[in-house]
Amino acid sequence: MERKIRVIIAKAGLDGHDRGAKVIAAALRDAGMEVIYTGLRQTPKTIVNAAIQEDVDAIGISILSGAHMTVFPQILEEMKNQGVDDILLFGGGIIPEEDIAKLKELGVGELFTPGADTTEVARFLENWVKEHPRNIE
Fold it and tell me: Quick one: DSSP state of residue 114?
């Protein structure tokens, strides 16, 4: 039996708008994934710690505050500090195209903007997990 893809959806920093995060969490659950929603105002360290504890395949960050060029690099740095190199970091929200390119160069897997089809997000995760299998018992 194939195990379910496990994903954490988180809101980092002071961003208090979580409708998009909840929509994505529900869509990924509907696609058959196990989703842990950490809630609002998480720190990069709490997000990465939760990802390790929950043994997830991916961390999804929803950001609408404009702090994406701070939040994503901080999470990537925390992942590096904790030796996490087999968990995907992806996200979505209001992020300008030029910043999307920069964040991808830093190591963010994919970024989805408002209006993205939720099935596209699920398909991206499914493909990523197939291409990057983790040795989990």
Answer: T
- Please report, for residues 4, 58, 64, 92, 136, the alpha-carbon distance to residue 1 in angstroms, rounded to integers and kept in the order given: 9, 20, 38, 31, 13
pLDDT tens track of the chain, all 137 residues?
A: 578 999 999 999 777 778 889 999 999 999 999 999 998 889 999 999 999 999 999 999 999 888 999 999 999 999 999 999 999 999 999 999 999 999 999 999 999 999 999 999 999 999 999 999 876 55
Rounded to a whole number of angstroms, the CA Rg of the chain reads 14
User: Pairing mode, if any, of strands 6-10 and 111-112?
Assistant: unpaired
Q: Which two tokens stand for residue 4?
A: 């379910």
Domains of the chain: 6-131 (3.40.50.280)
Q: What is the dihedral of CA 76, 40, 69, 51, to 10 degrees?
A: 10
Specify the 3-state DSSP secondary structure of 12. Answer: strand
pTM of the model: 0.94
- Would you give the DSSP letter of residue 42? B
Taking the C-alpha atoms of residue 129 and residue 86, their distance in angstroms, rounded to an integer, is 10
